[in-house]
Design goal:
The complex is a heterodimer of chains A (about 110) and B (about 850). Chain A is built from four helices and two strands, in the order H-H-H-E-E-H. Classes of the chains: A mainly alpha (about 110), B alpha+beta (about 850).
């Protein structure tokens, strides 16, 4: 099924959207990811992924109000869809499973 | 923050963003960008925020954000409109073939001129630039360039100097390999460290090994090719002058874009050894150009004062204070004295040619502007319809801009093709070997620059004016008729004529200067003089036997009826370079004198005037080596009232002055006459033979026969002295040609423009002329009507051109030692020529239109 496999950056964006609760618009996601990952993340990259995730059905969005800061332009606020949440859970479980499978010897 | 609202990113970036971004994304992303921009502003300040904003906008240039034709409707309309603009543009071009031709041809010619001139300028600026250590190289000079040889050691010992290299130019020695013998011009004797300082492109051998063994010679590719047409030159043994056993150890690519002409290198140390002349590098043999390679970050002021101190202390140097000349400044330096074998560029010339090139392009652009605006009348209906159907000003602007671009681009392609075709001719004109292929970055920059400049200069004004015209007026057919436009058109035409007038003045001045140089009394008669080198074994050196051989040879020549006179000397007039420090006492022999070794016949044969004392006397053997004849300049520099009988020391030798000759141009008219002395000794390897004016061929055969008897098997190469002198005018002759071409182009373009424009004006006034004619106006009245104050504009053109010409030409003339003065007649004459041309064009149209029967012209439209 399309959407069940996601890349690392897509996962990060999904997580950030979840983390931000009801205030996940483009720039907020960028700031969040910057503080979390300490990477230089660009607005264009985030917007691109947001659009793709919405296309995949993992995110849904509403147009929110504009502020003076934005020159009166509106925001698009994203939230996770059921499918989105499922993907996140699946990814996490996959990781956990694999983590547990690593023999202890490797860590020593 | 309340101030937030006032901070906005640069408008053009935002417009660019909304232009390319999908409309459905534009608001959301635009908002984010703006918010981010304001955060950046607070964090980093406006400047950096602007840059980041621009960068972020660029980052959105990805397929997901860019509008595409399929999904976005507005885009497809835009594309259709552009197609329409292009189509209409093409149709207009085809409908008005004559005007289109004037526009395109004019622009193409203008662009060709600019491209070629910029190529030339670029080429000149790149002189000496391939030397990687150029920022650390200096030349050791004083009031003159060439220096005594011992200063190398002195300078090299000063801390901060890494290497010191001398260049001495050996006077056209012969190179002999098996049967082949050639004289080699520009033969440099150098210190063996030369390749540590200067970079030359080795084709065979290497810079490290070139001078690692004694008796090494490095040749340039073209000399090597001449001497070894089919063999590998490396390791071949050659005879250099009269010295055997020299080995070719390296071949370098021909030295180009370097301020010295060099065809071969050999080492000074070898030369001193094989010629057994240690005083070559110890005496006041002021013939060496000394280059120093400095360490990084050395204090040059300190360095030169150290060198001066040391020179006085160690060498008892008594010349003018030494200075360092930056290597990068050498090529464009002016008025250096006593400089050997060096090429120079002329900055004023370069600037002038760049300016001229630009102005020719400007003339073409002005034609374009004037014709486009004038033509609008015919297109005003189209503009009106477009406006009525809802076209905004900016889309009209865009339309005209695109049309301009179309025309300019066609012209541009044409210009590149023409450039290719005329490049060989242009190369001949400027005496360089410029290339278009392989395409270099600088060429691309030049081309793009020319294209953009042309599009903008010719596109902006018409686009603005035409788009502004009122819809109703447009429909009535009145667009572009506002008074301000005609004033501007005329102002632009005066600018064109100013350029033409300037170029005419320039041509006349160049021609006058050239004529002045060619007709100036040189003080020496170099006509009908055949010169050749005494190359055979029997003439090598200066021993008794050689002297006897030469005497015998000379007698044989003189006895021939086809020969009027013979003199042997060591350097030929036109290329006198030997310089020795001279003075009244052996301690103060530091004034550089040009020294000519010649036999006593020299002065008489070359028709040089003796103004005091006597000539050298071939009957008096005591005159040999001990007597000297000076020129006036030398006497002046020595400060002697009664020179005859005085004694001077020159190159360490004591000599008595027996006569003074009038200053004569021993070198080109362009170089200043410096102090010079003629002495008689047997180091004379060249011959000047005066021939009777008739039957040159017979004389040549006679000389060659006698020569071959003396030196069988040695090639006879001869040249007329006049040819070598003519070389000195080559550059000016080229300039004359170049300027006259530019004049022709500029005038043609200006006339084409004025011609077309007057035709328009006349056509626009057809009805008026008809009515006036019907009411009884005379032909004269109608011509006056059409000429419409042209006189005024031509006067203005003169006012612009004269000061510019005066300024630039004074500058140009300044580069000559002996020059003409600018005179008013040149200026007035040029003004009159421009006026006559302009007026005859107007007159032509006036007569043509006044002849039309009023009944026909009234039916016009």
């Amino acid at each position: 099924m399309k959407g069940s496999n996601i890349g690392e950056f897509e996962e990060l964006v999904l997580l950030a959207v979840g983390l931000l609760g009801g205030d996940a618009y483009g720039l907020a996601v960028v700031s969040e990811l910057r503080t979390q990952t300490n990477r230089n993340i660009t607005l264009s990259a985030v917007h691109k992924v947001l659009l793709r995730l919405e296309e995949k059905g993992l995110l849904k969005s509403n147009v929110g109000g504009g502020t003076k800061k934005r020159g009166g332009r509106r925001k698009r606020i994203y939230e996770l869809t059921g499918a989105g949440k499922d993907v996140l859970i699946q990814t996490k479980e996959l990781r956990n499973r694999m983590w547990k499978g690593i023999p202890k010897l490797v860590w020593e | 923050m309340s101030t937030n609202r006032d901070i906005v990113p640069p408008n053009w970036i935002s417009s660019f963003f909304t232009w390319y971004c999908k409309p459905e994304l534009s608001e959301i992303i635009g908002g984010d960008l703006l918010e981010q921009y304001r955060e950046h502003c607070e964090k980093y300040g406006k400047k950096k925020a602007d840059a980041l904003y621009f960068w972020n906008v660029l980052l959105f240039l990805q397929p997901f954000a860019i509008r595409n034709g399929k999904k976005s409707k507005s885009k497809s309309i835009a594309i259709d409109m552009y197609k329409n603009y292009l189509m209409i543009g093409f149709r207009t071009l085809i409908r008005h073939k004559g005007i289109s031709f004037i526009k395109i041809f004019g622009l193409a010619v203008g662009m060709v001129c600019t491209i070629l001139i910029m190529l030339y300028v670029e080429h000149q600026l790149s002189y000496d630039k391939q030397q990687t250590k150029r920022d650390k190289i200096v030349r050791l000079e004083s009031s003159w360039v060439v220096q005594p040889p011992y200063l190398r050691k002195t300078a090299a010992a000063v801390p901060g100097v890494e290497e010191a290299v001398r260049f001495f130019f050996w006077y056209e020695p012969t190179l002999k390999y098996e049967e082949r013998v050639f004289t080699v011009n520009d033969f440099a004797l150098v210190d063996s460290t030369v390749f540590k300082v200067f970079d030359f492109d080795f084709i065979a051998g290497s810079p490290e090994s070139a001078f690692s063994a004694p008796n090494s010679v490095v040749l340039t590719a073209s000399v090597a090719k001449k001497l070894f047409p089919n063999e590998n030159p490396i390791g071949k043994e050659v005879q250099m002058g009269r010295y055997n056993n020299f080995l070719i150890t390296g071949v370098i690519a021909d030295v180009q874009k370097f301020h010295m002409n060099i065809n071969a290198f050999a080492s000074i140390q070898d030369f001193v050894r094989v010629s057994d002349s240690p005083d070559f590098v110890t005496s006041r043999n002021n013939n060496f150009s000394i280059y120093l390679l400095l360490s990084d970050h050395v204090n040059r002021k300190q360095l030169i004062s150290d060198i001066n101190e040391r020179a006085i202390e160690v060498d008892e140097y008594g010349g003018d204070p030494l200075i360092l000349r930056d290597f990068n400044d050498i090529y464009f330096a002016n008025h250096l004295t006593h400089e050997n074998n060096t090429k120079h560029g002329n900055v004023n010339m370069l600037i002038s040619s760049a300016v001229v090139g630009f102005f020719i392009l400007l003339i073409a652009c002005i034609n374009f502007i004037n014709l486009t605006i004038a033509k609008t009348q015919m297109r005003s209906k189209e503009i009106g319809i477009r406006k009525v159907s809802g076209a905004r000003e900016h889309s009209l602007r865009m339309q005209f801009f695109i049309e301009t671009f179309l025309v300019v681009f066609i012209a541009f392609v044409g210009a590149i093709l023409i450039s290719f075709l005329v490049l060989p001719a242009f190369n001949q004109l400027v005496g360089e070997s410029l290339q278009i292929l392989p395409v270099s970055t600088s060429l691309i920059l030049i081309l793009v620059g020319v294209l953009i400049a042309t599009v903008f200069i010719s596109g902006i004004y018409p686009a603005i004016v035409l788009a502004k015209s009122k819809a109703l007026n447009s429909l009535k057919g009145n667009a572009g008729k506002a008074n301000s436009d005609t004033v501007l058109s005329k102002a632009l035409i005066s600018l064109q004529y100013a350029t033409s007038i300037f170029l005419i003045i320039a041509t006349i001045t160049v021609v006058r200067q050239l004529h002045f140089m060619q007709s100036k009394d040189l003080g020496i008669d170099h006509t009908n003089t055949l010169t050749f080198t005494l190359k055979g074994e029997r003439f090598m050196g200066a021993g008794e036997k050689v002297v006897a051989n030469k005497r015998d040879f000379k007698n044989q020549l003189i006895n021939n009826a086809r020969i009027n006179g013979v003199t042997f000397l060591n350097q030929l007039p036109g290329k006198i370079t030997n310089t020795y420090g001279s003075g009244l006492t052996s301690e103060s022999d530091t004034i550089p004198f040009k020294i000519i070794n010649a036999d006593p016949d020299f002065i008489e044969i070359m028709d040089i005037e003796i103004i005091e004392g006597r000539n050298l006397d071939s009957e008096l053997i005591t005159d040999m080596g001990t007597k000297v004849i000076l020129n006036e300049e030398a006497v002046r520099q020595l400060g002697l009232e009664k020179p005859v009988g005085e004694v001077i020391y020159s190159g360490g030798r004591r000599m008595e002055i027996i006569g003074v000759v009038k200053d004569f141009h021993y070198n080109s008219v362009q170089t200043r006459i410096e102090a010079m002395a003629i002495q008689w000794n047997s180091w004379t390897g060249r011959a000047c033979v005066k021939l009777p004016t008739d039957n040159l061929k017979e004389s040549l055969i006679a000389i060659e026969r006698i020569y071959q008897e003396y030196c069988p098997g040695v090639g006879f190469e001869s040249k007329f002295l006049e040819q070598s002198f003519a070389k000195h005018y080559e550059e000016e002759q080229r300039l004359e040609q170049m300027v006259s071409y530019f004049v022709a182009i500029a005038i043609t373009l200006s006339c084409m423009g004025l011609f077309a424009l007057t035709a328009f004006v006349a056509e626009r006034k057809t009805k008026e002329i008809g009515i006036r004619r019907a009411l009884g106006a005379t032909n004269r009245g109608i011509i006056v009507l059409l000429s419409n104050n042209f006189n005024k504009w031509i006067v203005i053109a003169n006012v612009i051109a004269w000061p510019a010409a005066y300024f630039l030409l004074t500058n140009w003339l300044y580069s000559f030692e002996y020059r003409i003065d600018l005179d008013l007649t040149t200026f007035v004459l040029s003004g009159i020529v421009a006026f006559v041309i302009a007026f005859s064009i107007v007159l032509f149209h006036g007569i043509k239109f006044s002849r039309i029967n009023p009944t026909i012209s009234l039916r016009h439209e």
